[in-house]
């Protein structure tokens, strides 16, 4: 296999560091990324408080991260989530993960709490804990620049902003300063804040080399043309280039998931329009041929004149369609502000949409009109600094709803405590099965089944039909299972899931893992690894009480059809899908992995 996958164990209470080398059998079973992190977590106390000193936060790179493999740039962050209470994860790219591998580490396991703010500096010589009192209170961009000035310009930094310092339930971790690649979901930034950990800086060292460079280069040369061909729209416009087509499909959430069509608004905030009017440059993550990142000029707000990471599709929905906000400049400014503050834009947008609906219905005294750009910017600050009604939202929409009159709960659109990402299960019904069963809650990335339903990824690569009826329920449970299993291997390998847009199939994954990492696997074994990871994660959260009762959609998506647009009138039958889903997974009727399934997948844990 490839060289060392050493994990640095850091105890911030004791201010101590030691190294740990995972056994080869764990690497072979779980590869890297979130799967390996969950397996390491299984040997610890799973019932820790999310913001307690004993909650370990893992930063684990993918198996291929840092190698010259297309998109091998990812790192997963795993801890018990302050937003959902579950063991959960968030993944980011950029250059920090690859640079961590160059320093000789596959990951970090950080526990305890420092008595004073600190940051870590990691190099091939080890891990150093440094004081960060002077950085506390800075936004994420300024933090990155300050640390670069203290150490060296080539250092790569992940850090939290004021939202993480104030333990906002959906605080994010940002990488790369203005380039702003984010571990956005499930509040991992709050876990860092609770530990008084402001940032982690990594110095560049020697990158790992592939097990068989010749075989890897041959495979990449053969697969790369299709990857580049089919991902060309991402290169031109980024993920925001899909806003108009998603709206046309009835998939774009509008006014807190309430409306059905918004064609003029979608056009005004599309990635194509941003590229025409605001684009400064394209950029990409480490070893990425897609280069979907867009640096845009900020024309309004407190940072007018700055150039920073442009909004992704999810942020266009969060600060655009969800709020009925058609002002492109305010959307770009809000994205910049949220990244600087260290807020997950998906949950932030969901919280603001919830607040605007509560205001409309007279459930709160604040006047928060739909589409108001000033309200958007003010609430971002108020959430990050826990002021006024924003302070209530900072603990999550469900917590805020509990403090309001009863109808407020109807406006909460979450699964397992996580705000649903902005692809509508009433447009592509396989997403209902995916959202209901996703390990971390309302997460689109665990399955990306709408890629298959829309034709962006040929499901025949997984032994399923290529053509689907978006409004039907038949076969959607199996599609969710197969896609979840395959997508799990991307986190474990450290690859970007946008490779799916390049028609990247399991046999390609098998070639890269075999030639780059030296694990002899075929396409069936690739998907089996993903199945093992998914069941392991379900098993750990079952120990916290997760069962069938939690595998459901919120009322707004389960019983209220979209009133207009292409998906008008469609409602997915979640109960029917779950019965089929559990049978295919080898789970009990209560949604728990059976002993037979655990044995088949070689998962031997006592949790």
Give structural notes.
The protein is α+β, with helices and mostly antiparallel strands. It is built from 25 helices and 17 strands. A six-stranded mixed β-sheet has the order 2-1-6-3-4-5, with helices on both faces. Strands 8-7-12-9-10-11 form a six-stranded mixed β-sheet. β4 (75-80) and β5 form a beta hairpin. The radius of gyration is 22 Å and the shape is globular.
The outline comes out as globular
Fraction in helix: 25-40%
- Strand-pairing-aware structural class: alpha+beta
Query: What is the CATH homology-level superfamily of the largest domain?
Result: Aldehyde ferredoxin oxidoreductase, N-terminal domain
So, CATH architecture of the largest domain?
4-Layer Sandwich
In the sheet with the most strands, the strands line up as 2-1-6-3-4-5
Q: Please count the helical segments.
A: 25
Strand content: 5-15%
CATH class of the largest domain: Alpha Beta
CATH topology type of the largest domain: Aldehyde Ferredoxin Oxidoreductase,  A, domain 1
Residue windows where pLDDT falls under 50 for at least 5 positions: none
For the record, the count of structural domains works out to 3
